[in-house]
Design brief:
The chain is an all-alpha fold. It is 73% helix and 0% strand.
């Protein structure tokens, strides 16, 4: 009996410690995953609400429900028939595309020169370019307007495109990327008789596709959403961009939020599609380490 009791006494606590064991603490990975899910829901919910509300009627658009009770396409029909919204979309697309192509071309050349070429004052020039990132857009808005007026660029596509081409952020990011590229490839090309232009065009640019793709999305998105400069630089209705079109639409139809949300949905969809198609390039651009 004593031995049985002893066995039970020694085995009982052992079993209770393993069988009823305490819960394991939440791992950091699980916590970060939960946080990412919460932040994702918070980020997506306004977009989803805008999308669903664009199909609501005027009476139900402010009912606070996510799913429309009265589903209608009349809002989109109204947007494209009562105002020249297609013209606004074309203006934004044309201006954003031209700015993106020109910016990538000039920024990549400037960044390659600042990263690879040796010339007096290179570091000071890069410092001056980088310092412009500290200057906010409202500070230079009036001087930029005066320069554009003196050059006759107001109320023209050139006035909307040329001032937006040059951006220190693109030059800085590309320069950091080029600094991570192996010099051996360029040196081998120079030994084979290639000049700086051929090295840039045939070697550097093909290796820059991931970061150029990401910058193209950033530039296109920034100019697609441009509002302040187009508002200052243009009065011609034929040059109205999509963001100004939505703003004027909201002023004219202050209480008709169903039309406003339909126009905002049409303006947001191209950018959402562009992001989902090229999200891999955006992630890859963060790794500015050159060749993997």
């Amino acid at each position: 009996m004593a031995s049985d009791t002893l066995t039970t006494g020694t085995g009982g606590p052992g079993r209770s410690g393993t069988e009823t064991g305490q819960r394991r603490p939440l791992s950091p990975r699980a916590g970060l995953t939960a946080l990412a899910v919460v932040l994702s829901v918070i980020s997506v919910l306004p977009v989803l609400w805008m999308l669903t509300s664009s199909f609501k009627t005027r009476e139900t658009v402010t009912d606070g429900k996510l799913i429309p009770t009265d589903f209608t396409f009349d809002n989109f029909v109204y947007v494209f028939t009562e105002v020249p919204f297609a013209r606004y979309l074309w203006n934004s697309f044309f201006i954003s595309a031209v700015i993106t192509i020109a910016a990538l071309f000039f920024h990549s050349m400037a960044a390659y020169a600042l990263a690879r070429l040796r010339f007096p004052g290179r570091e000071k020039l890069f410092g001056a370019i980088f310092a412009t990132l500290l200057v906010t857009a409202p500070v230079v808005l009036i001087p930029l307007f005066m320069v554009a007026r003196e050059l006759g660029l107001l109320d023209s596509y050139a006035g909307l495109i040329i001032p937006a081409i040059f951006n220190a952020f693109g030059i800085f990011l590309l320069r950091q990327f080029y600094l991570g590229l192996p010099k051996e490839l360029e040196e081998a090309a120079v030994i084979d008789g290639c000049g700086h232009w051929r090295v840039y065009w045939n070697i550097v640019l093909p290796m820059s596709r991931p970061i150029l793709s990401a910058l193209a999305i950033f530039f296109f998105l920034a100019n697609w959403n441009a509002f302040v400069w187009p508002l200052v630089a243009t009065n011609d209705q034929d040059l109205t961009v999509v963001q100004l079109g939505i703003a004027s639409f909201q002023t004219q139809y202050t209480s008709n939020w169903n039309y406003i949300l339909a126009a905002a949905t049409v303006a947001a969809l191209p950018m959402l599609i562009l992001f989902f198609v090229f999200q891999r390039q955006i992630v890859e651009s963060i790794k500015t380490s050159g060749i993997k």
